[in-house]
Amino acid sequence: MNKASANGQNCYQVGEWDFHAELLQLEQDETVVKLQPRVSELLLEFVKNAGSPLSREELIHSVWPNMVVGDEAVSNAIKKLRQSLGDDSHNPQYIETIPKVGYRLIAD
């Protein structure tokens, strides 16, 4: 899942996408999608914990450290991440919602 890219930076394979955390972007063929910094941090947290559920509290602690944010910040970031990946919350291929538990990365 983690490989070095041509420029020496880490690149993570997330389904059909190459995720360049340092560049804040996703690449697929000729398509490049820029990510907001918090959305990129959120995806990196999912990649680090691939397949394992992460609660909203865990995500807030890791993506928004030393900040007071609520569930709305997590929901908005998840929504933006899904849009960037072309994912659908009702038929997910990347980010699964686990009711009353949290979210998890389900892509290979």
Q: What attributes characterize this protein structure?
A:
108 residues; alpha+beta; 5-stranded antiparallel beta sheet; two-stranded antiparallel ribbon; 3 helices; globular
Descriptive overview:
The protein is an alpha+beta fold and 108 residues long. It contains three helices and seven strands; from the N terminus they run βββββαααββ. Strands 1-2-3-4-5 form a five-stranded antiparallel sheet, with no helix packed on it. Strand 2 and strand 3 form a beta hairpin. Helix 1 crosses helix 3. The protein is globular, with a radius of gyration of 13 Å. About 5% of the residues have low confidence.
Main sheet?
5 strands, antiparallel
Could you tell me the strand content as a percent range?
A: 25-35%
What's the overall geometry?
Answer: globular
**SSE topology string:** EEEEEHHHEE
- What would the average pLDDT be, to the nearest integer? 91
Structural class: alpha+beta
Helix content: 25-40%
Number of H- or I-type helical stretches: 3
Give the C-alpha Rg.
13 Å
Low confidence ranges: 4-8
Topology:
Elements: E1 2-4, E2 10-14, E3 17-20, E4 25-28, E5 31-34, H1 37-48, H2 56-63, H3 71-85, E6 95-98, E7 102-105
Helix pairs in contact: 1-3
Summarize the structure.
The protein is an alpha+beta fold. The chain is built from 3 helices and 7 strands.
